[in-house]
Amino acid sequence: MPTTKKPVDLQPVLIGDLVELRPLRSDDFDKLYAVASDPRIWEQHPESTRYRKDVFSAFFDGAINSAGAFLILDRSTGQVIGSSRYYGHDPVKREIEIGWTFLACSHWGGRYNGEVKQLMINHAFGFVDRIVFLVGVNNVRSQRAVERIGGRKTGTRVSENSVDSVIYEITEQDYSSRLSVPSIVRAVPGDIGAVLNIVKACALHMQKHNIDQWDDLYPTSDILLSDINEGNLWVLKSGNSCLGIIVLNEVQSPQYYDVPWVYKQEPALVVHRLAVDPEVQGGGIASQLMDFAESYGRAHAYSTIRLDAFQKNPRAVSLYRKRGYREAGTVQFRKGDFYVFEKSLL
What we know:
- The chain starts with 13 loop residues before the first strand and ends with a strand.
- It is 29% helix and 31% strand.
- α3 links the parallel β5 and β6 (130-136).
- It has helices at 29-36, 53-66, 111-124, 140-148, 172-175, 192-208, 221-229, 285-299, 314-322; strands at 14-15, 19-23, 69-74, 80-90, 95-103, 130-136, 152-158, 164-171, 183-186, 233-238, 241-249, 269-276, 304-310, 326-333, 336-344.
- An eight-stranded mixed beta sheet has the order 1-2-3-4-5-6-8-7, sandwiched between helices.
- It is an alpha+beta fold and 346 residues long.
């Protein structure tokens, strides 16, 4: 089946254990400057006055205009703790730069920066083979941070803002053995085998527990490949292993039309085909995928999220109820009755 080439997504929502990265927006200035106004962050940086509001304002404008910048949040508190950026994507050379990263001093020490970089690297290796980091020659702290995540020094050069910089690189081949942080990334056609394995394993697992929900008629390989080609299927990966999947789009089944929704804003973000490898079920992966879905919805200005769950699948029903989803009614599909749930993202 022919595949559709999807545009590169330089501002996805990326979620790890410690941090969440979402696209930087113009209304984030005050929250981010509250972090950046600490002079200690910039002591070794070539632009050491970036803690000043006028200097930071120019930095922030550049971040917005780059269309590749992120706001970094502490997942445990929701607190804004910094920013990072993709830049200079070269589809011919298959390379991209990661940089302009800073974190609140309270989150220094390696764990948070390491996860930020690993999430960005994991995503970038979906469309490049080489990642470049430019670090000021006197910024020893940042040089050590890049080296800790596997950066290899390849030379020096003057950056676009006339700063003498050390060049580091990470290639996909060198990095593959270092992947450790689970990340949620948009699936590519090459993932279809792993996706099908998860779906088939889940179907068998449910049947063993007398949950007759999925079978050979649904979801099929054609449906899943269409999800991938349309850019709507996301996979949670740890290293080279796919542990779970989720589909996010605006497609609502005709059965939804007569549901008495409380949150009526359209379009709603709709969840389909959430599945976790039975070998790792019970480890919080479904919750991570739903965290991602809700963060994705907020980042893309959806005010409502909707989904359905088979009434005879108690674990799925329990998951959504524990997450605060409101039961809006019941609909019927081929396999029987399904609860429909909704949740406000405002």
